[in-house]
Automatic annotation (TrEMBL):
Subunit: Part of the 50S ribosomal subunit.
Any Gene Ontology CC annotation: ribosome
Sequence similarity: Belongs to the universal ribosomal protein uL24 family.
Entry-linked Pfam families: KOW (PF00467), ribosomal_L24 (PF17136)
PROSITE patterns: RIBOSOMAL_L24
Protein name stated in the entry: Large ribosomal subunit protein uL24
NCBIfam families given in the database record: rplX_bact
Boundaries of every KOW domain copy: 5-32
């Protein structure tokens, strides 16, 4: 599989959907979807368990498709590209030219 353009810990901006325009930090990336803290909140009914003995209704962040978010570089939404720096492949923000990692 190709290297992912969005990684855990990145700050991203939602570009479409009910949370359009909101920014947050990526908490997980899996199968082309990202979970962003505080964004795309859904209500989930849970049974009582060891972790939550009361059970009940809880709010949690649901996954969003990776194509619906953009990386934020210096407060500006940017596409992400790859380039070789020496013998290392690095991600960089196309809007600012800044190397991400």
């Amino acid at each position: 599989m190709a290297t992912s353009k969005i990684k855990k810990g990145d700050t991203v901006k939602v570009i479409t959907g009910k949370d359009k325009g909101r920014e947050g930090k990526v908490t997980s990336v899996k199968d082309g979807k990202v979970v962003i803290e505080g964004i795309n909140q859904v209500t989930k009914h849970t049974k009582p368990s060891q972790a939550n003995p009361q059970g009940g209704i809880v709010q949690q962040s649901a996954p969003i498709d990776m194509s619906n978010v953009m990386y934020v570089s210096k407060g500006k939404a940017s596409r992400v590209g790859f380039k070789m720096e020496g013998d290392k492949k690095v991600r960089y923000a196309k809007a600012t030219g800044e190397v991400i990692d």
